[in-house]
Write a structure and sequence with these properties.
Layout: H1 3-31, E1 32-33, E2 36-37, H2 42-45, H3 49-69, H4 80-103, H5 112-145, E3 151-156, H6 160-171, E4 178-185, E5 198-201, H7 205-211, E6 216-219, H8 229-236, E7 242-245, E8 257-259, E9 268-270, H9 277-297, H10 299-312, E10 318-324, E11 330-336, H11 360-368, H12 375-380, E12 385-387, H13 394-403, E13 416-418, H14 420-424, H15 431-447, H16 450-466
Helix pairs in contact: 1-3, 1-5, 3-4, 4-5, 13-15
Amino acid sequence: MNKTKLIVKYGLLDFLSAMCAWGFFFVYRKCFVNGDFNTYYLQFVWNDSKLYLGMLSIPLFWIGLYSLIGLYRNVYRKSRLTEFFQILTVSIIGVLILFFVLILDDEVSQYLSFYTSISVLFLLHFVPTSILRIALSSIIANKIKNRIIGFRTLLIGAGPKALQIYQELSGAKKSEGHFFQGFINVNGENGAVSGIPQLGSKKDIESIIKQHQIDEVIIATEEYQKGDIASIVSLLDGESVVIKIIPDMYQHLAGMVKMGNVFGAVLIEIETNVLPPWQKFLKRTFDIVTSILVLTLGLPFYVLIALLVKMGSKGPIFYTQERIGLGGKPFYIIKFRSMKVDAEAAGPQLSKEEDPRITTMGKYLRKTRLDEFPQFWNVLVGDMSVVGNRPERQFFIDQIMQKAPHYKRLQKIKPGITSWGQVKYGYAENVDEMVERLQYDLLYLENISIMLDLKILIYTVIIMLQGRGK
């Protein structure tokens, strides 16, 4: 399946319907006078450059709004009923925006004309958009039901429940889109799912997903294996796959879940998206605006810090180090240097309260968190966010994962300059403290919102002003 190609198709249909809708509405605005269509004004419409400018720019506005709401996500997994109400909601919002920005200044003989204009624009936009979108979604749904296209699926489990769910899904008259690539057992137990090959066991999940390009994972373990569910979900958390589980395991699963379709096999889908698209957009916008302001307004102050760092000890002004970010991808973090240049000559080490490696200037920078300010560049280029969990080195992540496998869940969001864990706990001096601090970062992940980000920022500023940074 070519996801990009399908997104382009939706985008072209959206552009076409929005372009036609605005064109017809422009003619309506210019030619309907006092409730009657006056052909005299048509001659002026075709020579008006605003018509063609609007037919090009207004569709881009709509596509941006659809992206913000998330209409271009999960294009192969659409509920047409949900999509209908999403289009209805977005159309109402978009029409109101266009009304207040572009239409409100129109000269009208009575205010009733405004209500008529809103209704006409809404109908001209909503009707063709919903028809074209749902028609394309129906074509895709029918291809899935007829097994023309589908999702490469991995089955976790090798007992009767795994066999039952496989037979139910593969034998259904109308497919739910599962193209089973194979199954894996959980802890090396005996068992088989007749009809598909065994690909490995739980420890091989990550490599199997990459090797077989898995789109969806169904967890169908036995009752006595319920203790393994959390670890399986933790292993899958950082992967770009849809995770589903059989209903009688619901009580053993912590987190957000949602039901699948009504008529097919009853499976519960684990909701892995931590932020809806519109909040992601707002968070990223906030990151960019904040970074630009901090980097530009603070420039003279940074020059002073740079001079003090250079005068305080031998070595470079800035310190860069590889950290692990979103999706487990490495990037280089940048900070004002607060330690001696040979601070890690003996290998990776965490800093301590009275660390002889920290320079005199570095102690002040750390207490006020001023050493972190160059990271706003990391935020600006998209490696980090202003608020998230603190990024760690792979060396320490490997140690944390041995004690807390659910750490991988943090890689679902960008790391931050400040975090709930850093505000509540401070810097960790060893792996045990890193694991202890992890609880706050996981709480942030479960409650992530723009308002929570603002609260964490306020507490961070208070810590900076009081010089309580550890």
